[in-house]
Amino acid sequence: MALTETRPEQAVIDPTAERPPQTAIERVLGSGDHKTIGRGFIGASLLFLAVDLVVAALSNLDTATGDLFDAGLAVRFGLNHPLSLLFGGALPLLLGLAIYVVPLQVGSPTVAFPRAAAMSLWGWLFGVVLFSVAFAADGAYGGSDLDLARLGHVSVGLMVVALLVGTMCVMVTVVSHRVAGMTLSRVPFFAYSMLVAGTVWMLTLPALLANLTIWHIRHPGAADLAGEGYASFGWIFHQPASFMIAIPVLGILADVASAASGSRQGMYGSIQAMIGFFGLLSFGAWAQVEASRETLVWAISGVLFAVPVLAVLGGSVDTLRRGKVAVSGGLIAAFASAMLLLLASLSAAVAALNTATSTSLFALDAGSFAETTPGLSVGQFYLLIAVAATGGLAGLFHWGDRIVAGGLPLGAGKAIAPIALLGGGLFGIGQVVIGIAGPDESGVKLLGTVSAVGAVLLGLAALVAFAAFVGARLGGRDAAEDDDPGELGGTLEWATASPPPAGNFETIPGPVESAYPLFDEREKGAR
Amino acid sequence: MSIIPASVPAPVLPRRRQLLFGTMFVSAAVAMFEFSLVASYLAERAGKRNVWLTENSIPLTQPNMQFAALILGSIFVQWAVWAIARNERGQAYLALGCTAVMAAAFLNQTTFLWQRVGMTMAQAEGPFFYAVTGANFAFIALALGFILLMAFRALGGQYSARLPDGISAAALFWHVNVALYAVVWLAVYIMK
């Protein structure tokens, strides 16, 4: 007799029955909602960014004074802070913003592969915690405890893999989840810039992972890991690879300018091409060894970085000029990050010209994180971290009322933006001037202190943004009590409620007929 | 009689090509990872020509047979794509099974080759040799897992001519890994 001979009792499914309510922990831990995942990335990365910037400030102070910490601790601070700034703060902040905003921009109810996106968040968080534990317990790079040094090494790999998984989810969302009518040439700038950035990250970070893998299976000693092992992936802090972190900022700038002025970006395709060009220049996995950074291709790419930055900046200014501008914290921060990016691009041009003229133009000192020496490339990396941080803050405040009910306090945004600009500028310029001017010992001391002060100011901006974000999230600001939210943008993320409901849109939007479907509707209504 | 009430709407089909695009991006990352490892291997070998593989010899039989297994796997997996696109489910299962056997054969031959070569991690070439060949081993193992997962989903009725993406994605990942093995075969086993 087969077991299936007896017909089971038919279950009655009531589709209208309510599920038992989830607890707050269940909602966070078990969520595949891109909004929860994005918020998780944004909140945690802001906090880590603030802490990392304090560590960077201490490291710079020690380099300037030479007697703040004992030698071992100073080396640990010097070697580990750029890694945690990049993979613990700046990159996840932009990725978190993308995981939250990109599905809304392309009119999708969800991010692609939501469980993979959740795995990305938790994998990254686990990696950051492991790295922090290793660093705090005399491990990571420069630590004397071998097991903890290796733990730090492996945790960097974990962070990178997790961030790559999240990046893949965002890229697939842009490519495959767009609403009807939204061709790639109509994709909003931030989503488009994330597609470009994601491509560059996907082609660059695996090369870093390969370096990490080889140094892991070599079973190195702690000193080898801090020396040759660290130097094997030092190229990630140098141009052109270091510029890959800034690609999404160009998209944020173009989107913020359009929304703040209530007008369309002119020459949409050209701006997209410029973002793509910037991405092409930022691909740096080929320039891993010192000799490749003395070639003509490297020099030309260094000089050209400023071109797409100026193009997107010019296009955004033109957009503002054509509309009625509502000044917001997001707008100020977006332009602040563009200014910082322009500074970083100029420093790249200086380094490139110096190489092209066989180092006779300046007595340039590039500096190195691996050797914990100050210089131009160190300052350039700091500037790019500041670009990503300030750009991330711009996005956070610009899309604040999409992210948190009622939005973030606009006053906080307006206050943070100049602090971030000042802090980011000082953070990088102090080191860049050391590299170009080659000052004496007292000058190095002064400029190192300037960098440290800049790091503290930028960290303060990140901390205030974190407090505003958490406060608004817990407090649940009412939209009615909000300051004037200003003009809303023309892209689809503005077509839904604040914050968006489950599934993001009441009805699936589209088909869209241009890059700015909400402006289309407004104009049709005016006729 | 169906136990699903008529009022419940039909499930929404997954986005077409989502899995295919995801696999494409992951494949690009995997390729960059493998290329970087091979580049490190070649750079290290160029600097240590006088000691490289002086204590070990790499036989060519296993690498060649591995390559043959992978190429056969490519043919089988493409057969699976062809079959699922025409709703020939029996053929699709058979083709996926054959591909899985080829993957298992590759993994078996790799471990056998490692034993035959007998290289240790203490040797200068050890970490690089095992990083390159080990990464290839890991990715083929991943491809095998992907194929088995897609085969089980196909058994559950998830893929058909209407939505063949899962099988196509597994095939894409397989083909990329075959191409990567071709690079390893040439750089590590043939050029030595």
Give descriptors for this structure.
heterodimer, A: 527 residues, mainly alpha, Cytochrome C Oxidase, Chain A, 17 helices, 66% helix, 0% strand, globular, B: 192 residues, Four Helix Bundle (Hemerythrin (Met), subunit A), 73% helix, elongated
pLDDT < 50 runs, ≥5 residues of chain A: 479-485
**Inertia-based shape of chain A:** globular
In the CATH hierarchy, what is the architecture of chain A at level 2? Up-down Bundle
Distance between the termini of chain B: 66 Å
Mean residue pLDDT of chain B: 91
- Number of separate strands of chain A: 0
Beta-strand proportion of chain B:
under 5%
Fold-level CATH name of the domain at 60-163 and 181-192 in chain B: Four Helix Bundle (Hemerythrin (Met), subunit A)
Write structural notes for this entry.
The complex is a heterodimer of chains A (527) and B (192). Chain A is an all-alpha fold. Chain A has one domain (31-526): Cytochrome C Oxidase, Chain A (Up-down Bundle), CATH 1.20.210. Chain A has 17 helices and no strands. Residues 479-485 of chain A have low confidence and may be disordered. Chain B has 192 residues and is mainly alpha-helical. Chain B has a domain at 60-163 and 181-192: Four Helix Bundle (Hemerythrin (Met), subunit A), CATH 1.20.120.80. The model of chain B has no long low-confidence stretch (mean pLDDT 91). Chain B has five helices and no strands. Chain B is 73% helix and 0% strand. At the A-B interface, α5 and α6 of A face α1 and α4 of B.
